[in-house]
Design brief:
Layout lengths: L6 H7 L2 H37 L5 H13 L1
């Protein structure tokens, strides 16, 4: 499952220009997506799940459980 690069290709990733390219792609594409997914998960699953432990109103519980299910 884990891919390990051969030793002769490791020097390629240590080049300054390659590191800058990877950092640029991470900061412009991956980082915003991961931060959005984290916020979506927290607001859509974690908070409703925690609220279900304290609320006793059945209608609201069903809404919160449905929200957790669909997120």
């Amino acid at each position: 499952m884990i891919y390990i690069e051969a030793d002769e290709f490791i020097e390629f990733y240590n080049l300054d220009i390659i590191r800058k390219l990877i950092d640029y792609q991470f900061s412009n594409k991956t980082k915003p997506f991961l931060s959005f997914m984290f916020k979506f998960y927290v607001l859509g699953f974690v908070i409703p799940f925690i609220l279900t432990m304290t609320i006793e109103w059945v209608l609201l519980l069903n809404i919160l459980y449905s929200l957790c299910l669909f997120v």
